[in-house]
Automatic annotation (TrEMBL):
SUPFAM superfamilies: FAD-linked reductases, C-terminal domain, FAD/NAD(P)-binding domain
Family designation: Belongs to the DadA oxidoreductase family.
Keywords from the UniProt entry: Oxidoreductase
GO cellular component terms, semicolon-separated: cytoplasm; plasma membrane
InterPro entries registered for this protein in UniProt: FAD-dep_OxRdtase (IPR006076), FAD/NAD-bd_sf (IPR036188)
Name of the molecule in the record: D-amino-acid dehydrogenase
Molecular function (Gene Ontology), one example: D-amino-acid dehydrogenase activity
């Protein structure tokens, strides 16, 4: 049995702790919050276990739309000007991944991870409750060009085992009657029957209980990591506001904050935040039972228990999250337009914002680092909830 520290108690840190504990390691998790998934992106995300929709962000179509984003003409995606050299270095690597060949390669690599993750969730859902549901997912497309691009990619993904089907608006409404009032606004849809949904915050709370009761995992909450100490190229200690933890092995799972802490040990991680937003309102009987994504507006709708989660939008440039009332207004207007009766929009809106830890190629960073004993499991971007079971299992196998 080896002692391993896990830095971060979001979905990635919690599943890493589980995968390591299952292999018999003595695990301690450190997080600045007072409970798991309290401060990071795993609190109020879109709830989608999006196993088939793994499309990388850097793509030829994103590049074609750059002038529109730079001029602020797209309410879904905002580029916020920043002078940070790190952002420009990240952006150059991002653009280098935007060719058709790179886009397809990145999408397929993430698809393989997502399919592994699905098996992991199926097994763990027998032990941990997280409002796990087989919802299927419908992506709506409002332009024929976007639909054509999707048809080609779907054929490729089908070859790798992802089951997806193009639907006409009428077929989409037949599958999801809640879309009836919106049928005129999309030209086609993509149906992913095996996609699922679940509450990542609830997952972390119940996994926390299981890890403590059945696996003896220790938790150090309210503990802020300031830096890492190394000696002769090896990890030596984690320096926190509660003192130093001497250690030989640790996993970096600090989401968007991984880059800053890794830097203290001489490691540069290409992770840049992309801010998103969510609202959570009481669901009505008219709420969709499938997960729905309006791809043009970058907004997802998902029922979690008796609530409707409306999440999305993408703002890139800022290093920190800003609470922006206009972005929540955009989400609310989109919800009222697509599903006017699906939620009680006059109730408390439970507005939340979080940072997606984006890498230039949309692939998470999983493996050993150049510092002996320091392992990386970070940079999960827009799909950390979907991918966490697979990246945790892969990293635990490497540590073993
Ligand atoms: C609006 C939005 C919608 C999304 N929708 C989906 C979706 O539908 N499906 C999907 O798969 N993914 C989705 N994502 C992405 C997903 O939420 C993230 O990829 C995932 O939560 C990242 O998990 P993580 O554990 O790496 O990071 P986090 O959840 O951010 O966890 C990092 C942890 O590190 C801790 N921490 C940070 N700094 C320190 C420090 N110095 N010391 C100690 N602890 C520290 C934090 O407290 C936090 O608990 C969405 C994200 C957003 C923002």
């Amino acid at each position: 049995m080896r002692e391993v520290f896990v830095m971060g108690a979001g979905v990635v840190g919690m599943t890493t702790a589980y995968a390591l504990a299952c292999r018999g390691h003595a695990v301690t998790v450190i997080d600045v919050g007072t409970a798991p998934a309290e401060r990071g992106a795993s609190f109020g995300n879109g709830a989608q276990l999006s196993y088939a929709f793994t499309d990388a962000l850097a793509s030829p179509s994103l590049v074609a739309n750059l002038p529109k984003y730079l001029l602020g003409r797209d309410p879904a995606f905002r580029l916020i000007p920043t002078l940070s050299p790190e952002f420009w270095a990240w952006s150059l690597r991002f653009l280098a991944n935007a060719s058709k060949a790179s886009f397809e390669r990145n999408t397929i690599e993430v698809l393989k991870l997502a399919m592994e993750s699905r098996r992991g969730f199926t097994n763990l859902s027998r032990k941990v409750d997280f409002d796990h549901r087989s919802t299927g997912k419908i992506n709506l497309y409002s332009s024929p060009e976007a639909l054509r691009n999707v048809e080609a990619l779907t054929r490729l993904k089908n070859k790798y085992g992802a089951e997806q089907l193009i639907l006409t608006p009428n077929e989409a409404i037949e599958r999801e009657p809640a879309l009836a009032g919106y049928g005129h606004a999309f030209v086609g849809a993509l149906w992913s029957p095996f996609d699922e949904a679940g509450d990542s915050w609830l997952f972390c709370q119940n996994l926390h209980r299981l890890l403590q009761s059945d696996y003896g995992v220790k938790f150090r909450f309210d503990t802020e990591i300031n830096s890492l100490k190394t000696r002769n190229g090896k990890l030596n200690a984690i320096v926190t506001n509660a003192g130093e933890f001497q250690c030989e092995r640790a996993v970096m799972a600090l989401g968007v904050w991984s880059a800053a802490i890794a830097k203290s040990s001489g490691i540069r991680l290409p992770i840049w935040p992309m801010q998103g937003y969510s609202l959570t309102v009481p669901a009505t009987r008219m709420a969709p039972s499938s997960s729905i994504t309006d791809t043009a507006r970058k907004v997802v709708f998902c029922k979690i228990g008796d609530k409707l989660r409306i999440a999305g939008l993408a703002d890139i440039g800022n290093r920190r999250a800003h609470f922006r009332p206009d972005r929540f207004q955009t989400l609310l207007e989109t919800a009222r337009r697509i599903f006017p009766e699906a939620g009680d929009y006059n109730a408390e809106l439970n507005a939340w914002t979080g940072l997606r830890p984006m890498t230039p190629n949309s692939q998470p960073i999983v493996g050993a680092s150049k510092v002996a004993g320091l392992f990386l499991n970070c940079g999960h971007g827009s799909l950390g909830w979907t991918l966490c079971m697979a990246t945790a299992a892969r990293l635990a196998a490497i540590i073993n």
